[in-house]
Amino acid sequence: MFHGLGQHKEQWEPTLEKLFTLHSEGSNLPRLREAWALDWQSHGEAAVLNEEALKDDPKSAPLDLWASATAGFLKSDLVAGHKLVGVGYSSGTVGLSIIMVEPSMMDEETWNTSHEEIQPFFDMYANAVKRRRDVWASKEAALNYFMGRFPWNSWDPRIVAVFSEHALKPSQDKDGNACVVGKCIAIHEACAFQVNLKNTWDAVEQLSKLSQLVPIHVVYGENVDLMPQVIRDCVIKRLGTAASITTIPDVGHTIMQERPDVVATTISKILNHNQD
């Protein structure tokens, strides 16, 4: 499982709870041994562990480094002999994916021909991140803040709770008082699109090859909001023939945060379809 930009591995927990319930003993669905979720090195608890290496350099943890770490994990004894399914959300689909939920990737041609359409989406996101509040007195204060403000108040309450618990770390404010701040440094999130452009191009090239060898499934939210239509069109075009394309109604790019149970049900249907 691979999370999106500005998120963390624990955001998969509500989806996984639903998924394992669906595939529990006694059901006719394929059994699930376990689930592994991997933090991007600049996100979540990984950002805390890598704090000294990251500093304020947005280039210190590119997506291809995450992909390299993933490759090392997949070659390890931890999953030797296991039947694995990669599930990525948003930027996580660039790292690795067989089931792609709202993929945010494109090829170089799409960027060159449509960057004037795409860039405003990137700028809007980056500016929002830079202006966003990032210091609270406690995790409880942060949770109360999130519950009353967009976009967090549109999320499933379980996701907001998980975010408040796992996306923040203890720190001190400018006056030396105890507080909590985001684990993912704002500059890493705000600059991620530009820093990782070539990685997304490379990922699409690999996707085109991979789709000829294994089934690739795509899940989209119905509403086109944070990712422009031209990026969606690029993914579908470069896939060639997708094993399936599912559109979830009444939700957009933040489908993972707003509809974790629906994401779980969709993944379950795909796993059941591919169990042979």
UniProtKB/TrEMBL annotation:
Protein name (Swiss-Prot/TrEMBL): AB hydrolase-1 domain-containing protein
Source species taxonomy: Eukaryota, Fungi, Dikarya, Basidiomycota, Agaricomycotina
Protein source organism: Mycena pura
SUPFAM superfamilies, per the entry: alpha/beta-Hydrolases (SSF53474)
Domain AB hydrolase-1: 2-264
InterPro entries to which the protein is assigned, alphabetical: AB_hydrolase_1, AB_hydrolase_fold
Annotated TM spans: none
N-terminal signal peptide: none
A UniProt-annotated Pfam family: Abhydrolase_6
